[in-house]
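cron nightly-structures :: item 1 of 1
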Amino acid sequence: MSAFDPVLSADTVDQILHLYATRGDDHYGEDVSQREHAEQCAYHARIDGADDALIIAALLHDIGHLLHKFGEDAADRGIDTRHERIGSGWLARCLPPSVSEPIALHVAAKRYLATINPSYLKGLSAASLQSFLLQGGLMDAEEMTAFLAHPAHQAALDLRRYDELGKIVGADMPAFDSYAPMIRALIMKDAR
């Protein structure tokens, strides 16, 4: 059995749905809401042929924004909310590492991609660039080595790609709630 606690999982899906129902309209600097962004990222993972764990990681990668208490303007106030740590830690209680670890690394993936590819850095949205600077900016060689050594680094890079694609205003996507059965299945599969 994994390190996560399946006892906590009974209410987890309901808690996730409630978070996105009550706080999913928050924007955090982007032109799309958190819910719209989540739906688009999951959609891109799905059409890319990602497995269920990565689809759910794409759906929930920014849940830390909905869990912290810093507010939508945290980056404007110079605060790195460490949303990737908050979200991955919260989800790791009942979802497998194949979901929580790419989420934990998606900020590092942005920093890595910006370091190795100047055009990636230039293509970041204003909000993503602002958070990038607060999150540490370009990686040094030691940080890049550590990132690449992590078993989930490729999943995090894929997640980052879906993250960048998930910012289209007015895109028609499958509803957030439609992913609830997939989340439940991942909880149950890892609990066995």
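cron nightly-structures :: done
The radius of gyration is 16 Å.
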